[in-house]
Predict the 3D structure of the following.
Amino acid sequence: MSDPLALLLGQRACRAYTPEPVDDGDLATILRAATHAPSAENRQPWRFVVVRSPAVRAAVVEVTRGVWDAVGREHARAGLAPGFFAAVDSFVAGGDGYGGAPVLVVAAGDGRDGTPTAVLASSVYPAVQNLLLAATALGYGSAMTTLAVQDPAGLGAVLGLPAGVRPFAVVPLGRPAAPLGPPRRRPVAEVAYLDGWGAPFGAPSTAAGGAGAGPPPPARPPVA
């Protein structure tokens, strides 16, 4: 995409992928974009583990499904519309997991210098957003998932992460199995305030299909 604003407004989660491999050059470009995110004190604590090996991928899926089976499924079932829940459940528990994405990128934060977890997160998540946007720009599907990182010890053991390096997200990457369509977002007027909480920002109407158009998303986001 040549229009940065269109890229920002069009990026959305993908939960079904084709088996087509992710090109090494494209993957390097995506990771490079991730490393150009802002970070606290420019520490750049992000670290990325690219998972291609079927055995390692299966182990990541096993950790993910362990969390899903233990607490994630019922949490999601209580908060998501039935169709949305079914899509998430299939993404996690169906097939070989993660919608069949051929690559998983685990984004972690290196806190071995004593950087607090909250500061690591504030640096790693912008890098993940850059990764998602770069993937979209190159025609790949992606999704930020945080289910497996609810078991940091289990996921860390699978990947051989040193003590002090904490995983924050698992991002599946691959070509979308079907067109994704536009994302669903609340209108800006519902979430932005002017000079203090509760005073409407007064954003222009988006009835004609602007940035805030479309129905609101589910009351609670998915856990995967």
